[in-house]
Amino acid sequence: MDISGKFGLTPNTLEDRYGKTVTPASICDIYLSIKYRGLLVSSSISFVIIAINMVLKKFVIALLTWVKESTKSEMLASITNGVFIALYLNTGFLLTAANANLTEHPPHFITDNFTGPFYDYDPEWYPEVGFLILKTMIINSLLPFVGLFTGWAIPLLHRRMDMKWGKDRYVTKKTSMAMYKKTWSGGDYVIHFKQSGLLLIVFVSCMYGVGMPLLFPVAAFNFANQYFCERIMACYQVKLPPTLDDKLTNNMIAMMKWAPLIMLFNGYWMLSNQQIFNNKWSYKPNSLSNTHMKSGHYIDLHVNWASPILVMAAAAVFLVIFIKFCPEEIRMRLGFSLQEKEIKVDEDLPNFFDTILLSQADEIVNEEKNLKTYYGFEVNDPDTVEKLDNATQPRKSMMGTPWYTILSNDMYKDDFQYTGAYVEEREKLIEDGNDVKEDENGNMIEEDKRIKCEQSDLVIMLLNVACVPDAVVKKIPDFEHGW
Questions:
Q1: Phi-psi region of 376 (alpha: psi -120 to 50; beta: other; left: phi over 0)
Q2: What's the pTM?
Q3: Which of 149, 220, 158, 150 is nearest to 184 (CA)?
Q4: Mean pLDDT of all residues in the chain?
Q5: CA angle, 200 as apex, 194 and 202 as ends, to 5°?
Q6: d(CA 53, CA 146)
Q7: Where are the domains of the chain?
Q8: Cα gap 330→349, rounded to integer Å
Q9: Which residue has the higher pLDDT, 185 or 317?
């Protein structure tokens, strides 16, 4: 029995008024197809932004590493700023600028180039553009776990490949000790990479947080994930971070102070929106286009609900200009600067030589003995070396390295492939490609040991000779074996 057309059911075939058979359109299928395509495109935008950020990080780091700076800290600070600016423009600015319509505002030779659908932060901007920014930051908050997993999986894969997929770690494809150590000692801790990500979180959250307060708990969640993952990575995955000065920290503080200023200005513009807070409206310029109604939102000095934020923003700008251009003597008199008065604080710290670990003292003592015995010159004061040689195990030890020398920084040590005289049997860790002669007991003969050790000794000698005036260096005999 054919029940099509009965009980509210639509028949599979219909006839038009001329009696011609037609097939009804699958309206629901068409609607769902368009909906899912739009959802796929909108969802992919956040992932595309994250992917572009990763590419930008690699590109900017490679570019600024190639440019070079006078010190490692300055180079890392430049990389931090460069990566942050690239990420911020791509994540927090480009999406808003691409959808902005600034044709209401002067100067028109610039603003007429911005012809997006949104004249302001109107009610429709938040679900279309604001939601994409929020979703990007949510995805970004989960990336620390991705970095934690890849930091474990990729080195493990490289090590298994180096062991020829076996279990004996002493079976290796590496042809030098430096390459073997690099495979098994973990990667470098890229602190500048992390700092640029933290700056991105702070600036994007401050820029849009007044209008989208959900960005602040997302940022807090991101910071918590960063802390948790970084603790694990620093303990189990990467090498000990290098010894750096305070340039990176000062650079981070200098960059952070601009985030509240951006929050005040953009927050004022969000809160002074006329359509949301004053119920103003205007006709759309073209009902067939995707352009929304004009905002009628201009900069004026009328007092409204957003005026306190504008006053705070103006005061912040005044303070920035005042501190930047006002002489320090005047600022000191007005109370805007600390007086240059030496503050004496008794920190109850022990004597320097009573805080050094025995291993740290051996670094200097053994290096000094090696240079004096085989090359005939001294780098450190003999009294200092004697005190270090007589040092005992400290009750409270100094954190980090006490020696402000290039080779006490593991990063430079690896770059020079330096193995110090304080490393026992270091000749076994140095490979120069020459054949090794052995005595009757199967041990390396003394002459071959010295030839191998000269590779590392040459590094510390040249670093010290570089500080000597040229006129003195020219009097040194040729660098012959045993000099």
A1: left
A2: 0.76
A3: 158
A4: 82
A5: 105
A6: 15
A7: 41-299, 357-473
A8: 37
A9: 317
- Radius of gyration in angstroms for the set of CA atoms belonging to the chain, rounded to a whole number: 33
Closest by CA to 162, choosing from 151, 172, 170, 152, is: 172
pLDDT at residue 351 in the model: 85
Distance separating alpha carbons of residues 430 and 425, to the nearest angstrom:
10
Asked if 218 and 166 touch (Cβ cutoff 8 Å), the reply is no
Residues near 117 by Cβ (< 8 Å), separated by ≥ 6? Answer: 99, 101, 290, 291, 292
What pLDDT, on the 0 to 100 scale, is given for residue 78?
A: 87
Distance of alpha carbon 187 from the chain centroid: 15
pLDDT tens per residue across span 379-388: 888 899 999 8
Which residue has 């409206």 as its token pair?
Answer: 281
Residue in this structure with the two tokens 């490679």, named with its chain if needed = 62
Query: According to the model, what pLDDT value does residue 291 have?
Result: 62
Q: Are 127 and 144 in contact (CB under 8 A)?
A: no
Distance CA 235, CA 215 (A): 30
Q: What is the pLDDT of residues 189-240, one digit of tens each?
A: 888 778 898 999 999 999 999 999 999 999 999 999 999 999 999 888 888 7
Amino acid at 463: L
d(CA 252, CA 116): 34
C-alpha distances in Å from residue 251, one per residue of 77, 78, 248, 254, 281: 6, 9, 5, 5, 45
CA gap 361, 356 in Å, rounded: 6
Q: Which two tokens stand for residue 47?
A: 């992932």
Distance, in Å, from the CA atom of 245 to the CA atom of 139, rounded to the nearest integer, reads 33
Q: What is the pLDDT of residue 1?
A: 44
In the block, residue with structure tokens 């780091």: 61
| Contacting residues for 371 by C-beta, under 8 A, at least 6 apart | 377, 378, 379, 457, 460, 461
